[in-house]
Each structure stands twice: as C-alpha cells, then as structure tokens.
C-alpha cells in the first residue's frame, strides 16, 4: 500500500469524527459537513506530498474544509446574481421553516458571512491567534480582527452578551440612577 493511502486511512479512522465536527461548525449543516470533509480529503490527497503524517494531513484537510466552504459560498453568490436569466423565480417559501432552525448558536452562526464564520470557528473552536488565522486564511491581521469584531457584534445581538475567557475585557453593567439614592446596595 502506498504511504499516502496508509496516512489517509489512519486519518479517516482516527480523526473522522473531529473533522466532521469541525466541518459542521464551519457550515452548520451535517450533510454539507460530510461533503466538505470528502472534498477536503480529495484535495489533500489528490497530489503527492512527501513526508505527510496524520497530524500534518489533518492540518491540510482542515484548511481545505474552510477553503472549499468559502469557494462554494462565492460560487453560490455569483449564481444568485445571474440565476434569474436562466429560470423563472421560485415561489416564496413558508417562513415557518426558518423557525425550525435549531439552536440559538446555530442560528446566530448562520447570520455570519463565510469569512466571519471561518474566523470565529478558527478563533474560538481551534483556539488560533489572530496571526495564525491570518496565515491560515491568507488574510491581513487587521482584516481578521475586523471580521472577528463584526462577527462578535452580530453574535452578541443574536445571543446576548458573550463572555470570552481569552479576552481581558470586563463589562460593567450600568447603575440605576434614582433621586435620593446616594448609597450602593451591598
């Protein structure tokens, strides 16, 4: 058996669940996550890479998962701009289906753009630093910071105040002001 086949088999056998979980966090759909992992495995092992270990292969696959997701999102956006030229409009869907979205976090993540979502997943799931995320996605550090700030703002609107153990920010709730209250409640 070729070395790459052995590496791929060990990766799938030992880390498939972790890769599927990661892909689910990126895209938010279980069946789409399976497709992302499959596409990422094909991208990673379609060409020979010398000295590829299970650990390095997992890194390649994770990066491919985010790249494939962003590429597919862009492709879908381009198609939406021209699809009306090729077919009639579909009847509007029942808004009740949107209510059945699932958990609050899942619904909140769905409101983010693909880049924002990828940055949030890499930061808070993979626990990468801003420079690491920038290298991973091929972006400038300032751009990553902007995506994270915008995403956290949207997530806070959807979920409420988010406590971040990694950040050193403290939020102090405003005090109620009232006439004649010169002391603080203990």
Question: How does this structure look, described?
Answer:
The protein is mostly helical and 186 residues long. The protein folds into two domains: 1-86, no CATH class; 102-161, Winged helix-like DNA-binding domain superfamily/Winged helix DNA-binding domain (Arc Repressor Mutant, subunit A, Orthogonal Bundle). The protein is built from eight helices and no strands. The protein has helices at residues 3-27, 30-45, 54-82, 96-99, 104-110, 114-124, 130-137, 141-159. α1 crosses α3, α1 crosses α6 and α6 (114-124) packs across α8 (141-159). The longest helix is centred in the middle third of the chain and has 29 residues, at 54-82. The chain starts with a helix and ends in a 27-residue tail after the last helix.
Number of domains: 2
Q: If helices are DSSP runs of H or I spanning 4 or more residues, what is the number of helices?
A: 8
How helical, in percent, are the residues? Answer: 55-70%
Please tally the β strands and state the result. 0
Beta-strand content: under 5%
Per the principal axes of the C-alpha atoms, what is the gross shape? globular
Question: Please, what is the average pLDDT?
Answer: 78
Q: How far apart are the first and last residues' alpha carbons, in Å?
A: 71 Å
Q: Could you say which structural class the secondary elements and strand pairing correspond to?
A: mainly alpha
Low-confidence stretches: 96-102, 167-186
How large, in whole angstroms, is the Cα Rg? Answer: 21 Å
Taking the sheet with the most strands, its summary is: none
H and E order: HHHHHHHH
